[in-house]
Amino acid sequence: MRNKKKKCIYVVLLTLAIIAFSSIVVSAAPTTVDIPNVNIDIGGAGTSNDYVSNIKLLIFFTILSLLPSILIMVTSFTRIVIVFSFLKNAMGVTQSVPNQILVGLALFLSLFIMAPVFTEMNDKAIQPYLNNTMTQADALQVGGKPLKEFMLKQTREKDLQLFVEISKINTENLTAEIDLPLYIIIPAFSISELKTAFQIGFLIYLPFLIIDIVVGSILMSMGMFMLPPVMVSLPFKLLLFVMVDGWYLLVKSLIMSFS
What we know:
Layout: H1 2-26, H2 48-65, H3 67-74, H4 77-91, H5 99-130, H6 136-154, H7 157-167, H8 182-221, H9 229-243, H10 246-257
Helix pairs in contact: 4-5, 4-8, 5-6, 6-8, 7-8, 8-9
């Protein structure tokens, strides 16, 4: 009994000692730590030149976000991609030719056609502006002239006159059509491109439509009503397109239409 009592006393004393030691450690005052000052400087713009560089970077990313719309509306991309779409539907190969291939081809053809315009814009406006030899307003005015000249060459007078009359702009002080603002030239150029693309698409449709009519008439005369004429005419369409070297003729015609 005494041994058990001694063991219980030892256990109680040991427990009290552990609790006392833990309370001392927990209640100890925390040591003071010097927290460094955090200074976050975005861009590091300290001088006027740094602020100008940041503004140029902001303008660049803004233009980059609008690049798809600019590419579609002010270049040759619209005409080319619509003509390719007409060709695809006329041949009946909607599943055989992926849209990504046609869009990619239209994109690089547009870059090829617009290369002289972009080069002139870069030499006369972009590079002088980046070298701080031209102001932003002058760069926009000088850089827009080659693009305006390209669009006005492809724009019909009727379409351009439509937007000039609707906008009620004062044309007395304008010495030439190139002095018109872009918000008038761009929509006129767009609807002119749509009409030209539809005209080219109609001419592309004619030979393939004739093949469909001939094949359909032959199948009806043979009593083969259950056989789809499109299935039979597709090989003849492909044969005709390959024999005349259709891609070469089509791409050449599209490029020459902008010259």
